[in-house]
């Protein structure tokens, strides 16, 4: 495998670059490939979404993260008081108002996804500074819901 | 088979169960009609049917009955979930002159009211779990808050202390209202370390009632079953006979007509208690079909058509062993959070003893609107061990990429000693946190090859756009080292 300018991380550790792995392509499929390495056959399917490359290899799934050269600070650094949606879903209830003093782990919002309710708790104690959603809003995973100062 | 007057059936459901019902209808020479809501306009079940109709909701009984009448369907099959246990659907069917494939509206209402159902079973001499409408005595804790009008774990909460009862009842009530359109809840004694064992029953319009043996449903997450099997490793011939007799008695007590399920809990002393009756086809019905040879949907349609049961009790036998794994779009390692997305790669398994009831294919969009079940993988083998081995093999061959699933987790559970020895109860997952850890600690060289090939995909692809191997292979920029 020839080196490339993209690096992948797996379980937080960088994958060694530049090592040569001789392989032979046995079959190309519309969505995957069969290769042989030292006479042993492997079936592989990949799917890439943003920085994550998911590789299905012989019945197991490996999720590799692409390490970018330039990092955008706004994307990576979440302030501790930011509450983001842990999953896509619909906001069912907002339990607090701007200005409410909340305790750590106090439920602040109820999210519904696939007919299951999930209570979202404050990550720390503080005052609710911003509420960016209201009941009925459909939110994406990772979307900012609320800010606690 | 005799002369069937049912010639066209509308299935008021979606996903894998709609398709599974279509399969049987087709084999009976019956025309199939799908209904769909907006997010499902391009769903697999819609394309699989002979005809389809848009509806505003899978929960609007009147609209669905009108759609059936308009398209010339003779009958409606409700599947499971949605309207399957809503008396409104048989009522709407009757008004529209359409056959409802299921029991009488009154039976559904009585059994759907979990409080009334238990009272009736108690009168019929069947042991039941203690329950209260509200505020149980403090010494009875922990208790379960449950939906009066539905099952499947929706609207259910475990409450350890009296102080937590009110918020739990409120949350359960909201969830129940959203799932079943009925926010009523009640409280039941929580039985520690039970097994969930249910018995399939069939009753016809001529007063015949039979049972089709038990299913073991103890492997659950968030009170929802994920792995089921038949026979139960906890049930021997004597207990099986007792469970079967109790189930037949329970079904006969409500003059049951159709396919139904009597759910029991089995405690450590091998005593069983009636939990509830599901007046519909169960998600896990395939394990019964695989071990008895019956097609339960075929029986349902015959019964709805007024025909007698196709087999007497004495002709039914359990042969071999069957397991079912529910394939969910979720991340077990992250508290089973629901996963969404588009299925980019889909390679279903097959081979000896394998049955797959699937509602998705490559390109299917998995959204936030519905239950996260994608498919059910069923394995049959001459013994439990053989069925497990076949299931392990099939799970390892099942490729779904683009949406995260519980496939690897299921494989770890069925491969564990705790599952293998058959001595588990409903707390198996809570007792074995190691099952939530991915066990592969080394990155195989083949994965590096895949990563490297994926890295040289055309740079023009935006970061957000998903790309699969296809792009890499077609780009011409890779090199066979």
How many individual β-strands of chain A? 15
Task: Write down the overall geometry of chain B.
Answer: globular
- How helical, in percent, are the residues of chain B? 25-40%
Return the structural class of chain B: alpha+beta
Radius of gyration of chain A: 22 Å
Question: How large is the count of helical segments of chain A?
Answer: 1
The total count of strands of chain B amounts to 24
Which terms would index this structure?
heterodimer; A: 149 residues; seven-stranded antiparallel sheet; elongated; B: 481 residues; alpha+beta; eight-stranded antiparallel sheet; five-stranded parallel sheet; 16 helices; 32% helix; disordered C terminus
Can you describe this structure?
Helix content of chain A is 3%, strand content 52%. By secondary structure, chain A is mainly β. The longest helix of chain A has 4 residues, at 73-76. Chain A has a seven-stranded antiparallel β-sheet, with no helix packed on it. A four-stranded antiparallel β-sheet of chain A has the order 8-15-13-10, with no helix packed on it. In chain A, strands 12-11-9-14 form a four-stranded antiparallel β-sheet, with no helix packed on it. Chain A has one helix spanning 73-76; strands at 7-10, 13-14, 24-28, 32-37, 40-49, 52-57, 60-67, 82-84, 89-94, 101-102, 107-113, 116-121, 126-131, 138-139, 144-148. Chain A is elongated and about 65 Å long. With 481 residues, chain B is of the alpha+beta class. Helices cover 32% and strands 24% of the residues of chain B. Chain B contains 16 helices and 24 strands. Chain B has helices spanning 15-27, 44-48, 61-71, 88-96, 105-112, 114-123, 165-180, 237-253, 285-292, 296-304, 384-397, 407-415, 417-420, 428-431, 445-455, 469-475, and strands spanning 8-11, 31-36, 51-54, 75-77, 99-100, 131-132, 143-147, 157-159, 185-189, 195-203, 209-221, 224-230, 258-266, 272-278, 321-328, 330-331, 337-338, 341-342, 345-347, 354-358, 365-366, 373-381, 399-401, 467-468. In chain B, the strands form six sheets. Chain B has an eight-stranded antiparallel β-sheet. A five-stranded parallel β-sheet of chain B has the order 3-2-1-4-5. A four-stranded antiparallel β-sheet of chain B has the order 6-9-7-8. In chain B, helix 3 (61-71) runs parallel beside helix 4 and helix 11 (384-397) runs antiparallel to helix 12 (407-415). Chain B is globular and about 65 Å long. In chain B, 52% of the residues are buried. Residues 457-481 of chain B have low confidence and may be disordered. The chains are: A mainly beta (149), B alpha+beta (481). The interface between A and B is large, with 59 and 58 residues.
